[in-house]
What does this fold into?
Amino acid sequence: MKRIKMAHGGGGRLSQELLEQVIIPILGPEDGVMHDAALITMCGQHLAFSTDSYVVRPIRFPGGDIGELAVTGSVNDLAMAGASPVALSLALIIEEGFEIEYLVQILESISKTSKTIGVNVITGDTKVVERGCGDGLYINTTAIGHIAHNLKIGPRAVCPGDAVLVSGDLGRHGLAVLSARAKLGLRSTLKSDVACLLPPVEALLAAGLEIHCLRDLTRGGLLSACDEIARGGPCTMRLTEDLIPVHPSVKAASEILGIDPLAMANEGRMLVICPERQAELALSILRTYRAEAARIGTVGPRPMHSSLDERYPVSLLTALGVNHPVILSNGEDAPRIC
Amino acid sequence: MKRIKMAHGGGGRLSQELLEQVIIPILGPEDGVMHDAALITMCGQHLAFSTDSYVVRPIRFPGGDIGELAVTGSVNDLAMAGASPVALSLALIIEEGFEIEYLVQILESISKTSKTIGVNVITGDTKVVERGCGDGLYINTTAIGHIAHNLKIGPRAVCPGDAVLVSGDLGRHGLAVLSARAKLGLRSTLKSDVACLLPPVEALLAAGLEIHCLRDLTRGGLLSACDEIARGGPCTMRLTEDLIPVHPSVKAASEILGIDPLAMANEGRMLVICPERQAELALSILRTYRAEAARIGTVGPRPMHSSLDERYPVSLLTALGVNHPVILSNGEDAPRIC
It folds into this structure.
């Protein structure tokens, strides 16, 4: 590693390496286990805190835009800790020459999305960079949330035997953005799944389920999320390809573009890991939000030291009945998807 | 206003217009009064929340770098609400091709600065954009702070007769960055003032002073900060040019570059507005941190409707004894200074 490559931002193996070898050794956390939102305890209150920059290209895509993405993305990160949003910050980096009318549309999208979710943008910042030093508009949103439950939600809470569920069909966001970029003419059917995950999370918590881990399936998609959780556990994870919901239009676009929909970003889908005995109830709740929600696998035991399982803790049982270790791609397939 | 200009990010009149005419009408706040940090009350606790992106060019400048700037800048915004930092988020937008060794140096600077201040970066994000869609490295930091005092610190608390103080000499940061960029060869004497303002603010609060307003003098410098506070008050403000501390090397560089040091960004200087009767004590405290701290003016009454004072609420008594209304420049003098 000498210079930053596009794949360092792709959510795959190179993103993982940049985090593990460069960022975490300098800034922490000391245990090296990352989760979507960080937790703070302050005067007896439990807060969640999460930041994301959005550099999606194009900034308007089938089914959404960078403004909607920036609000739902950061709120979803809070939701993955079971937290409700309290406040959002918004920071814009605008390229010189960007049309103000276009900026207004994005700000209106931010306003509409945050009103729908019920959170306010309460502080902000605007920077301008010269033509050729940006790409229209980059947005950072940072969210503070409040945690009312007493669960420990995160990779460390995952146990062998737990059920692995997804909240809907996969790959729509990444494929919709890439298709729009490649001008495949598939726009009418393929739309981003960008959506707020707070309602299903609140429903799972309200039902008293013992959620072990939640993860929204953004950059790097399902496979990257499973790999990260398994390494954080540490545990293994066995997924069954046939059980993973992927819409035919996503499959078609994936084949044309030559990419794996299971490694593709989603912006309104999550992984839910819970005890086996609660899997049916959890699934029935998820299905009230998306009919395609499915149980896709099971958590296995901690891998033995120096085993293949330790190197590749997630495996995928394919339609041919072969159990493949999941080897993450380096992440260059889908740059600037979020 | 049809397209974004560099001056929209310069902290002058165009920045103000973008905020007042485009951003605030869509996203609020409803009262239109902006302050460095937003306040949240949660379960009886008072929190401050502030975000800033840093796009300074060059990313290493005499006296500091973008990493140190990103940590102190956001902590200073909290300090301006009298808040102590609880946690920081860090989001990087890196241009493809950026040297990892250089990234390591910036991350180490972030780590060192945050350790010195006593706050941790607890959550982060990394995005990569193509060559030509960034400029090396842009950083966003967002800070959460805790407020322990009961004062209302902000433009609305400012009263006629209040004393206006600055915590040190002005113009160093902006001039150091511009000089480095223009390769004026002034580097040996002119260094950025980048510094954490938390210790002097804590000392002012610990002395029981009734602070009415604090404002760090970043983009747009002293004049822009005074203008914004006066409009927010609403009140007028009379400054005396001779009393405003500016170092001879800053004056020299300003003359060469043809810019006003009073409209130049500082990254370790603040305005303190307090009751007249406490001005001496406040000044003596500020002087234990910077000998150049000075009283530079007085708050005047609310301007009459449709008066010149309403259009230009800040005035500057020059060395010639003339009282000039302060008319903000549009902000194009000093692009990407922070």
Notes: Chain A touches chain B through 76 residues (CB under 8 Å). Residues 61 and 131 of chain A are 22 Å apart (CA to CA). Chain A has a mean pLDDT of 94. The longest strand of chain A covers residues 83-95.
